[in-house]
Amino acid sequence: MKRRVTLKHIAKELDVSVSTVSKALKNSEEISRETKEKIQAFAKLYNYRPNNIALSLKNKKTKNIGVIIPDIVHHFFTTVFRGIEHYAGERGYNVMICVSDESFEKEVLNMELLANGSIDGIIMSLSAETQERNDFNHLQEIMDQGIPMVLFDRVSDEVACDKVILNDIEIAFEAVETMINSGKRKIALVTTESYFNVSSDRAQGYEKALISNDLQLEKNLVLTLPYESEDEIPIWEFFESNEIDAVLCVNEIFAIKCMDVVQRQGKKVPEDISFIGFTNGILSRYSTPKLSTVAQHGERMGETAAKLLIDRIENDLEGNYKTEVISATLIHRDSTIN
Amino acid sequence: MKRRVTLKHIAKELDVSVSTVSKALKNSEEISRETKEKIQAFAKLYNYRPNNIALSLKNKKTKNIGVIIPDIVHHFFTTVFRGIEHYAGERGYNVMICVSDESFEKEVLNMELLANGSIDGIIMSLSAETQERNDFNHLQEIMDQGIPMVLFDRVSDEVACDKVILNDIEIAFEAVETMINSGKRKIALVTTESYFNVSSDRAQGYEKALISNDLQLEKNLVLTLPYESEDEIPIWEFFESNEIDAVLCVNEIFAIKCMDVVQRQGKKVPEDISFIGFTNGILSRYSTPKLSTVAQHGERMGETAAKLLIDRIENDLEGNYKTEVISATLIHRDSTIN
């Protein structure tokens, strides 16, 4: 039997990216005519069939679910996975995961790998690069083949499918308002690039809370950090050069790093400066002081996503997509004034 | 097309466990004759073929690797996975993971799922229950079908395959000796059940270090904790009722929990009591005080495992199994006296 030719083989053979191949095969305007002709000819020659096995999937259930997460060394995503696994197990489904490593290309490859006939549906959270590019063709393709999909946490309005999200705007609003009510006035936001839908929602909640309490939005009180970085200089300088008495951080690790820096600068937490983070991970429970944080209820999010997916698979539902909103909880520990 | 009957279907239909079905089909002595006949008849009726697709796999490479880890919410396993993924990616392989959730039955199901024709080889770490049962038939079966396997960290002498392990005995010896050299004499071990090969190796290193320094082994200085538990009472009582001036913990989370308890009991770390943990995770870097710990170099372990597996896949190697030993490093932070 001849080996099935994949997007990746074609990309490698012609020395172009996987997404170029994918777009060329769909005759996208973004790709030059010359490149398209070359790729299409090659695909024809080698009898490329887009996920051909998947096309026959609809009537042949595998009782397997595929999950794609952006990062495996990340408490939130692993707890969501746990929720998916527990719920799916109860309904007799096995689960396998692929990790996109925040890369668009890997996400495309993961989907191709999973959609090779061994799964009935996919649950995923978008990679950073996918959110940055705003390119969701690969998701649409999978759904066009009749494989249902549920997006969680990092989602996009441009993809029509079931979704599970957190009430990020509301809970960020509540977190900031709590700090204002305890007497804080100079409130900073430590966040990631705004192409993450969750970061932009949390920023929106932060801004709304300031405005509704007649506080001024100050651009220099927003610190944008790279998603993964060991460099603490920007943090050090941010807290040295600004007068800040409270901080909302869009994740747990930013909060822990910032608390560590300000305490070395001689400030007291929470008296001089309060902190609230997102992700109620183990770090929050054992930091000094223990971190007040937003519990995102990852397991519940995972269970909800798995329920949406399995219901759709088993009832062959089409359209009528739902977005379930998980209500986050603010947990007060020792990094805020009660 | 009729759906393929799996071990799980048979188990469910006949209301027995997956491992009973697996053993019955291999005519195991452990299963009663009556049960075996029933299961075998059922399997025949429904044309059960053990991983039938896998049998034809040998000449048809998929360029996919399957990974089975016991737990996804665990820093060490996720860093090993990262290492596997990075190395495999460089050699053009995709990786998918299944999680056994420390369950023997899930591990068997994971293997069946992965061996359905979509992977060229498996990298895994044994579940707690598999180590407790000491039952490795499912691993042997996969290898008998020509699917190569590499075990890492939680391994067994009873399985003949490539392995990657840590020098657990030596590094535990070194950790304890370091504390003895700093003047400590009443050294405790906080560990998990001894059916984990890694825990038993670390206990062996601990004992050796005491003996070689003419210190007495005291049974009451060894605390065995359940693998996952929020209950701190046993920890509280252990440190209240014993005179202890140093502690080796077999993982990071035990160390963090114990440090938290003893500090609430009014003891000073490291002056009154020193701590060394295993797993150089993010918790260790942000605990108070920062935890001295054994870096297991999970990424290197993962890369090594992936190299062993891919070399075996690509060169169709048989036999001549290797065990690669990764040398751990002791990292001194603030929970030990330097």
From TrEMBL, chains A, B:
Name by which UniProt lists this protein: LacI family transcriptional regulator
> Which InterPro entries does this one have?
HTH_LacI, LacI/GalR-like_sensor, Lambda_DNA-bd_dom_sf, Peripla_BP_I
Q: Which UniProt keywords apply?
A: DNA-binding, Transcription, Transcription regulation
- Highest taxon above the source species: Bacteria
- Show the Pfam families listed in the entry: LacI, Peripla_BP_3
Instruction: Determine if Plastid is one of this entry's keywords.
Output: no
Secretion signal span:
none
What sequence ranges are listed for the domain HTH lacI-type?
5-59
* SUPFAM superfamilies registered for this protein in UniProt: lambda repressor-like DNA-binding domains, Periplasmic binding protein-like I
